Amino acid sequence: MRERGQITLVTGGARSGKSALAERLVARHALPRIYLATAEPRDGEMTDRIQQHQRGRGDGWRTIETPLDLAGALRATDGQGVRLVDCLTLWMSNCEGRADVEGLVVTLRQQSCPVVLVTNELGQGIVPANALARRFRDDHGRMNQAVAHMADQVWLAVSGLPLRLKPSREDPDDPI
Questions:
Q1: Is 72 annotated as a binding residue?
Q2: Is the pLDDT of residue 101 over 90?
Q3: Domain residue spans in the chain?
Q4: DSSP state, 123?
Q5: Where is coiled-coil annotated (predicted)?
Q6: Is 149 tagged catalytic?
């Protein structure tokens, strides 16, 4: 498996096991681990979720909070280890419709160290009742497609099980 520059996208529904799968993929690399967190603790429930993720990861991670400037955080940390971005959905939401997806994709193509990105699969649910929510779902789907297209490998988490959608070019038969 190529150690440098590999881009991996992990997608799935809520509570599907995306983050746990992404952490296992990061653990495959013999590099320092950097967690690029896009969540903001805006209420008690989100604070609890963030703390639960932190406890689940354990020690050995450097965490950088980057709710808005994800591309800048990726550039600043390139060469320092494997990065786990959790998650693209919250990043896009934080940007309030002004997420620079094209800039993110360009930045991802320039990385010399691996990046594992987590995102939600929103397009398989109920069609939202209002125009703003539908626009977000559509923009999010286009973002996921753009990142998946350029990624070296793509995984789908379903009920805690990994399903490889796009195998790595280096080792297409390697199971997780």
A1: no
A2: yes
A3: 7-166
A4: T
A5: none
A6: no
